[in-house]
Write a structure and sequence with these properties.
The structure is a single chain. The chain is mainly β and about 130 residues long. The chain has a domain of about 90 residues: Nucleic acid-binding proteins (OB fold (Dihydrolipoamide Acetyltransferase, E2P)). It is about 5% helix and about 45% strand. The chain contains 1 helix and 8 strands; from the N terminus they run E-E-E-E-E-H-E-E-E. Strands 1, 2, 3, 4, 5, 6, 7 and 8 form an 8-stranded mixed beta sheet that branches. A hairpin with a 2-residue loop joins strand 6 and strand 7. The protein is globular, with a radius of gyration of 14 Å. The mean pLDDT is about 90.
């Protein structure tokens, strides 16, 4: 069993911690920021990015969406993220699709979102 595949972690937003990988999580898109352009220092390409506030019954978290992923999600809709990860950006927790993750429409829509528990508002250290 020398495979490098991790067992996926079924998580809720309140359970997210910086450094978690292979996260499967169902969320509802609460709101999105204005789309902006970011130029990569690595390849000098220009990318589209926006921040989505996503939530479930346990809390909310910011989720940056890039390029074609922006076009595949809509405010008010529920989705399943498979093989995502959580990290810190300027001390603030973020949920990411990443290059190995995928987003599909959720089988069951989320109706109840706990907007009192903003996981991105909490300051985290490390990482």
């Amino acid at each position: 069993m020398s495979e490098n595949k991790r067992e996926p972690i079924e998580a809720t937003i309140a359970e997210l911690k910086p450094g978690m990988k292979s996260v499967n999580i169902t969320f509802k898109v609460m709101s999105t920021s204005e789309e902006r352009s970011v130029e990569s220092r690595r390849d000098e390409e220009t990318y589209r990015v926006l921040d989505a506030m996503v939530g479930d019954s346990t809390g909310t978290v910011l989720m940056p969406l890039w390029n074609e992923t922006i076009d595949s999600v809509k405010e008010g809709e529920s989705y399943l993220l498979t093989n995502g990860y959580a990290s810190l950006f300027k001390g603030s927790l973020r949920l990411h699709v990443g290059k190995f993750g995928s987003i599909v429409s959720a089988e069951e829509p989320i109706t109840d979102v706990n907007q009192q528990m903003d996981m991105s508002a909490e300051k985290h250290s490390g990482q």
